[in-house]
Amino acid sequence: MEYSILADSFFKMESTTKRLELTKILVELFEKTPHEVISKIVYLLQGKLRPDFEGIELGVAEKLAIRAISKSSGIPIKKIEEEYRKGGDIGHAASIILEQKTQTTFLVEDITVERVYETLLKISKSEGSRSQDMKMKYISSLLNDATPLEAIYILKILLGTLRLGIAENTVMDALAVAFSGNKDNRKILEHAYNVSSDLGKVAETIATKGIAGIEEFEIILFNPIRPMLADRVKSEQEAIERLGNEFAAEYKLDGERVQIHVEEEKVALFSRSLENISSYYPDIIEKIPKAIQADNAILEAEIVAVNENTGEFLPFQELMHRRRKYKIEKAVSQYPITVNFFDVLFSNEKSCLELSYAQRREKLEKIVKEDDFARYIPMEIVRNENEIEDFLENSINAGSEGLMLKQLDKPYQAGSRGSYWLKLKREYQNKLGDSLDLVVVGGFFGKGRRTGNYGTLLLATYDEDEDVFTSICKVGTGFSDESLDQLYQILNPKVTIKKNPRIISEMEADVWFEPELVIEVVASEITLSPIHKAARDKIRKGAGLALRFPKFTGKIRVEKTAEDASTNEEMITLYKGQKKVAHDKNLI
Ligand code: ATP
């Protein structure tokens, strides 16, 4: 397939943020795409080469790209850098440079999607001392044959700056329309995506086998399943209202959620945001196969740091010591853990998602043999407020955050935050209820002691309907000197020249970031705001929601993606809940 078709679509998509229009452009593109390249197109659209969980990084630096442009155009590096500074985007600088190319190539080949894809894959795999030269050779060979427009999008993918603002749901809408003529089939596609986390594979399946193929789509061992999430409740009473008079309560441990895929000695670990985290936990990789009594399985557990002497649970932050590339053996012995199992999603070649919670728990206890390292999360069946309160007390005393409450007769809903699982934390029982996970979208330079750091951050919630990030507050308290430095290190590479179109804010920040990092904040309450954009017009026309007295808790939520942040729906529920409490107490 000619790469120019894809480049034209990229160009059209970049000039709109409207979801309907994006879908239309995608449908046209998919209709022109031969089946054998559809998965590649879907990855490229998201600026990727393979699904995220494979962890393939292109890793091309700006400097190298500029050298490659110089090599293929014969124009000096200085001139290209000048052009880049003027426009702020290497892709566009390259297209201007290529227009004025001084070198003529004699044999210009049309470039195809396949060729671009294979070359990018080779670039991502080049390693070792000569890798920089090899990468440059690959890039300049593509640029030699590329038109200026094609060059823009080759470079944007290479540098990781292609941001078309298309959400996975939009891609699925377009796949449903293009290959089944009916947008409502998106729901079936979603299921396939939820169990495989691989949109390319889903696209290939519907293109080659139609909707019937998607209906038969099955879990693939070593492809992570998108996790089921919980809704929050504020009180025991609310839990009973929502779950009925008999349900399971489990400790809500404060650790890292892990999905463990195991077949004989082969083990892979995926985080809550589906990153492969196997290298941080060599102890799990070594010990878990011995605890599993099945040919193969996919299990969920919470990894918790423990005090070696007392066996007590330690807070989530302790696990951060494991997130390192080198000397992991030392971290393993210094920061011991236990693996606390709470679910089974697949065993002996069969999906367990359709089984009820009670059946899955029973199966789990058959599959996992408990020892000091592998344990089941403590669980009890509860029937009334007192029993919940009692178990909550035990759970908090054991060092956990609260309880997870789960309906006994319900299946596992991959990829959704439903009402079959609820979480009850002690801290919810204050006025606002919960801490919030917000996306860092902008920064303001610090003064005094904070000079050289971002003293204040602009935070946003996730708007699921529009797939955008809406401003909700500025936060400037709760930071230690250490956390300010740490945040600066993480945020600096995310600085963009222009505000990402997915950020909705009236406030002007000193710098804008790619909306990627999630941090945890607490606040005294939610108020209406004329400036902020969260849930704008939803409660009152012309007003959004804002946080009063927000404070950073010190938790950087590395395991969450921006789309996992607190949503506007949640904010509206919290706002209404807060009003109700005030009303009940005759405060308003
Ligand atoms: P939070 O910010 O409260 O950790 P979350 O958005 O990461 O929530 P939720 O599904 O809302 O995810 O809350 C459940 C989280 O709690 C899981 O992601 C998991 O890490 C953790 N957890 C601890 N114990 C359990 C348990 N028994 N069952 C399920 N999840 C548990």
Write the topology of this structure:
Elements: H1 3-14, H2 19-32, H3 38-45, H4 62-73, H5 77-87, H6 90-99, H7 113-125, H8 131-145, H9 148-159, H10 168-180, H11 186-196, H12 199-215, E1 229-233, H13 236-243, E2 247-252, E3 256-263, E4 266-270, H14 282-291, E5 296-305, H15 328-334, E6 337-347, E7 350-351, H16 357-367, E8 374-376, E9 379-382, H17 385-397, E10 402-406, E11 417-425, E12 436-445, E13 454-463, E14 468-475, H18 481-491, E15 495-496, E16 503-504, E17 511-513, E18 518-522, E19 525-529, E20 544-548, E21 551-556, H19 568-584
Helix pairs in contact: 1-2, 1-9, 2-10, 3-12, 4-6, 4-8, 5-6, 6-9, 7-8, 10-12, 11-12
- Low-confidence runs of at least 5 consecutive residues: none
**How would you sum up the major sheet?**
8 strands, mixed
The quaternary organization reads as single chain
Q: How many alpha or pi helices?
A: 19
Q: What is the name of the CATH topology of the largest domain? A: D-amino Acid Aminotransferase, Chain A, domain 1
Shape: globular
Chain-averaged pLDDT: 90
The number of distinct structural domains comes to: 3
Radius of gyration: 25 Å
What is the number of beta strands? 21
CATH class of the largest domain: Alpha Beta
CATH H-tier superfamily of the largest domain: DNA ligase/mRNA capping enzyme
Q: What are the bound molecules? A: adenosine-5'-triphosphate
Distance between the termini: 65 Å
Could you give a quick summary of the protein structure above?
The protein is an alpha+beta fold and 588 residues long.
